Each structure stands twice: as structure tokens, then as C-alpha cells.
Amino acid sequence: MKTSQAIRNYLQMHRQATGKELSDHLGITDRAVRKQLSSLLESGVLTKKGRPPTVYYQINSNPPSQPHHSLPTHLTRVISQNYLFITPTGKKLTGIDGFLLWCEKQKLPFEKTAREYVAMVNKFSKYKRQGLINGLSKLKHTYLQVFLDNLYYLDFYSIDRFGKTKLGQLLLYAKQSQQTLLMTELIDTITPAIERLITSKNITSVGFIPPTVKRQIQFMSVLKGRLHLKLRTISIKKIVSDVAVPQKSLTRLTDRIENAQHSIVVSETSYHGNILLIDDAVGSGATLNETAKQIREKGICDGKIIGLAITGSFKGFDVISEV
Known about the structure:
This protein folds into three domains: 3-59, Orthogonal Bundle (Arc Repressor Mutant, subunit A), CATH 1.10.10.10; 73-125, no CATH class; 129-312, Rossmann fold, CATH 3.40.50. The chain is built from twelve helices and 16 strands. It has helices at 3-14, 19-26, 30-42, 73-82, 95-106, 110-125, 136-142, 166-177, 180-200, 219-227, 253-263, 286-298; strands spanning 16-17, 46-51, 54-59, 84-86, 92-94, 128-129, 132-134, 150-156, 158-159, 163-164, 205-208, 232-233, 236-238, 264-266, 275-282, 305-312. A hairpin with a 2-residue loop joins strand 2 and strand 3 (54-59). The termini are far apart.
């Protein structure tokens, strides 16, 4: 009997098992079992739950169907580059595989929906110049005074009808799951764009907007460490009163502005040239604008202050409440 079939038989009888349990039962090495499990997972025969060192494997009771499709090359390319679907069980599917499953779950015709998705991606891509979305005009329509010289997003957090973008998905689940591996994947994806911006704008100093919500692994700390930027760092602090109120919990613009004014403190005293302020997600832009305001009022910047968010909202004032 083939090893793959023996694994399936064992799981059908025992419902679930670890790799070590399968290795002991079959009398083969852990490496041989892992090879078979990897193949069975890739083909959709098995699913897994947990993460190392505690991972259980089981028969996939609802294997995804693979309807025949023959999309034109340009549609396949756009979907492969831009689409990410994270299943309810936490499986990460990119490109066509993810889009197929999403269409199936939504009961949508694959090819027609693929064309509509690509059209939507192309629509939103028109806002990008050299891989960046300029969000300054949105900020100027939101505030009477804007203290940033420019504001950029690497992508929108979500797009019409199809929901969160690839970066939006990665950011949401990297922060919520606190998985360093997912954070690393996201950071490695965005690093080239950040480095290009630093070079093109002659950035000499960088500031990272600190989080409000306490987490064991803070995404912004991982981002700062992995970027390895050889720049001076602006000292920015978040002050918490009796109750920590995250920006994302506030739906009114005036509340967000008040929150930023009373929680952000720029404790820097030295002088800087061009400054880049990095935040993970920008909804109203209140925190970045308040940070830039304090830098200007302290007179510690004789250059430009540029804001950068991994993701930002598309509408004039839109609250990103998930991240």
C-alpha cells in the first residue's frame, strides 16, 4: 500500500493525527511523513490545524472543486499578482486558487467575476504613481490645517465589492494573529517601496507611530527592526489615560482628532531634515497629522514631513476599524 493511502486510511479511522503519530504508526521517518503530508495538503486531500510544534492533520471533508477555466493571460496575471484569500480555517490561498475558492463560496461565476475583479483592480491602480497612492488631497479635504507635506499609501485597505486588498489582508491577520512569520512576509513585500521612497525624497529621519493596543508582539516593533533603516529615529510616544481608547474604536472625525491630540507626544528635541512618519493603516489620518503638527510646533524639522501608511482608505474620511 502506498504511504499516502496509508495516511488517509489512518486519518479516516482516527479522525486526526500529528506527524509524529503518523510516523510512529507507519514506521517511517518524520521526513518521509512530512513529504507525503505536504503533497496531500497541496492537493487538497488533507487539511491541518494549529502551528508548529502542535499541528494536527485530518481528511478534508469539503475539498475545493476545481472548475475548468481558461482565462486570458492578462487576467490570470493580474489575479496572480493581486489576489489573496484567507479561508475561515486560516489557510492562505493566493492568485487563481484563492479566487476560485472565493467565487465558489460566494456562488459567483468564475470567469465573469474574474473580469469584473480585474476591471476593479485596474480602476484603483490608476491612483498609483510609481507604486504609491497620494493621499494628501484626501487629507486636505478632511482637515482645515494639514501639517504633512505629503501622504502616501502603499495600497488601499479595501476596494469596492471585493473587500480587502492583498496588503489589507496581510496587515489585518498579521496584527490579529501576532504571527511573526506573517508579519515578516508583509514587511518583506513592502520594504522595496519604502526604500525607494526614502531615496527619492532624501529622507534623513524616520518616526514610527506607536500602537495603542497592547500586544505581545507589536507589528510596528517588528517592522522597525526588520527594515534596518540607517536613519535617525524620531521619538514618538503614545500616552494612555485611565482607559486606552484605540483610534479604530472611534467613528467620529472630531473624536479621532481629540484622541490624537491627547495621546500622541513627540518627545524629540534634536533637529532633523526630511522626516518620514510610518503608520500601518490610515483611516482619518488624525494621528499622522497630529504628529506632524507637534514636530512643526517644536521647530525641530527644517525639511519636509512625509507620511506613509501600508494601507489607507479610499473615501474622503473612512474609518478602518479592523486594524
